[in-house]
Amino acid sequence: MMMMGNTFGSGMASVFFLWATIQQFFPNHLKIAIKECLISSIQQFTFVQRLSDRFITFFSPYVEIKISQYDGYQYNHAFASIETYLSEKATDKAKHLRASQVRESKDLVLKRDDNRTRDEYKGANVWWEIETDSEGFRTYKLTFHRRSRDIVTDSYMKYIFEEGKLIDAKNKKMKLYTNNPSSSWGPNKTALWRCIDFEHPASFDTLAMDSKKKEEILDDLAAFSNGKEYYKKIGKAWKRGYLLYGPPGTGKSTMIAAMANLLNYSIYDVELTAIKDNSELRKLLIGTASKSIIVIEDIDCSLDLTGQRSNKKKKKERFLMSWKKEKDKEDNKDNKSFVTLSGLLNFIDGIWSACGQERIIVFTTNHLAKLDPALIRRGRMDMHIEMSYCTFEAFKSLAKNYLDLDTHPLYTKIESLLKEAKIAPADVAENLMKKKSEIDADGSLNDLINALERKNTQNATLDESSEKHGFKRFNPFRKLF
Ligand SMILES: Nc1ncnc2c1ncn2[C@@H]1O[C@H](COP(=O)(O)OP(=O)(O)OP(=O)(O)O)[C@@H](O)[C@H]1O
Ligand SMILES: [Mg+2]
Fold first, then answer.
1. Which ligand number lies closest to the CA of residue 254?
2. Which of 96, 140, 176, 321 has the fewest CB atoms within 10 Å, counting from its CB?
3. Per-residue pLDDT reduced to its tens digit, 355-400
């Protein structure tokens, strides 16, 4: 076809060149005769081409439709539906299958495991093929006979998109995506995100924290997820930011998992240090789907996001950044991120955030005081949630969870020790965990009491030495809000 097109083009050029020469040198009556002759040969040529087109179509009567994983920067959700449909539904027609066991189910689940699958719909045969380009982006190619064109375009495509969505809803499969290039997860390897099924047992029922605070968070999440019309009415992008702060082991990551389970959202775990620059961050964030939680853990460690820098310091940093960039270009081995605070802020409240709807952004930090006030101001991070050391109320909820205990004679002692001790729920949970085959509530509670007493002695020693040296113990988690 291509060759035929070229021949036709160069043939036409020669005809026009000939005509120009004739115009210049030939008498009128000859010109008219030659003109008529030329017109009839052009007509014959186009006729031959039409004929050859029909000939090719006759011998290759197949039509192809391509569905790519990404439409520009945006993830193509039709692609995801096709993938779900093909991997779960079209197994009876596939030659190669993959068996796996899913969560609580005892049965093996069969999934398609070949690159080419035949499917049948209302008597029409179609073939699906997956192609991966050099950058890792995938494209589904659908091939069918042209006589099935109407069935395929009018109803088969609609059918598979709907089926794919239904299967996803039924399986309630949430995904955990990461952009970390070092992770070698499969099977959905893409250049932007890699993902696995998200299966975390965390829930708000098992999360030990102040019950009033928990209630507030649950109400906020419910208002957000049902707020489609409200956000539209007030003209705001349907998104919400949560900042979780507190010492290590107080349940920040657990709360994110509980949020995902509650709302049935997928999680995008953003590794900022693996992102080259602001434009790569933008690409990544635009590639996220709706109904998702975008998580940036330990934001203070991921980037230099400290606030109130002096101009002099800023200038010096900018100089160092550009120098480093040049150096990176040179040896291309330093993996440092060049995402800036403004790049991040731009995403949070810029137009990028409006590209997708129903998205939650969560930042976590152990050091609230280290963050730039611009990053955590209200409106950007709508709700600031302090995850604190274990209180007696949180302990009771952990004991109920781990030991099935509502009350115990040792509770009074534990309550008074907890008033002094700064112990994370993770450490309490560690002591309450079953160490033998049988639950030994007394043993676990005594372990906890020993741990609390040790903590209190350590704190007392620290306080004593602080007083002696005339400084106060620094508390980075002082409540700012
Ligand atoms: N509030 C809590 N309620 C129930 N379990 C908790 C709580 N906090 C911590 N845990 C337990 O401790 C483990 C560690 O908690 P998690 O990873 O959520 O802490 P974190 O605050 O994210 O810590 P880090 O700041 O180090 O990331 C969890 O697997 C969970 O079992
Ligand atoms: Mg964590």
1. 1
2. 96
3. 667 899 999 999 988 888 888 887 778 999 999 999 999 999 999 9
Residue with tokens 């990461």: 178
Question: How remote is the CA of residue 98 from the centroid of ligand 2, in Å?
Answer: 34
pLDDT digits (tens, 9 = 90+) for 303-324: 665 433 334 444 444 444 444 4
Please tell me the distance between residue 426's alpha carbon and the centre of ligand 1 in angstroms. Answer: 5
Q: Collapsing DSSP states into helix, strand and coil, what is residue 79?
A: helix
CA 154 remoteness from chain centre: 31
The residue assigned the tokens 């403004």 is 342
Q: How far is the CA of 17 from the centre of ligand 1 (A)?
A: 81
Q: Provide the residue ranges of all domains of the chain, joining segments of one domain with +.
A: 2-59, 62-173, 177-386, 392-469
**Look-up of token digits 């380009």:** 133
Let me know how many helices (H) and strands (E) the chain has, helices first: 17, 15
pTM: 0.67
Residues, CB-to-ion distance under 5 Å, ligand 2: 252-253
Closest among 122, 104, 113 to 83, alpha carbons compared: 113
Which residue's CA is the nearest one to ligand 1's atom 25?
Answer: 248
Residue nearest to atom 29 of ligand 1 (CA): 254
* CA trace torsion 202, 205, 210, 214 (10° rounding): 80
Residue 382, Cβ neighbours under 10 Å: how many? 15
**Distance between CA atoms of 75 and 355, rounded to whole angstroms?**
11
Q: Helix (H, G, I), strand (E, B), or coil: what is residue 13?
A: helix
Is the ipTM, as predicted for this complex, more than 0.95?
Answer: yes
Q: How far apart are CA 436 and CA 72, in angstroms?
A: 55
For ligand 1, atom 12, name the residue with the nearest CA. Answer: 426
C-beta 396 within 6 A of ligand 1: no
Cis peptide before 181 (omega within 30 of 0): no
Domain 177-386 - what CATH class?
A: alpha beta
Residues 6 or more apart whose Cβ sits within 8 Å of residue 247: 366, 387, 388, 389, 422, 424, 477
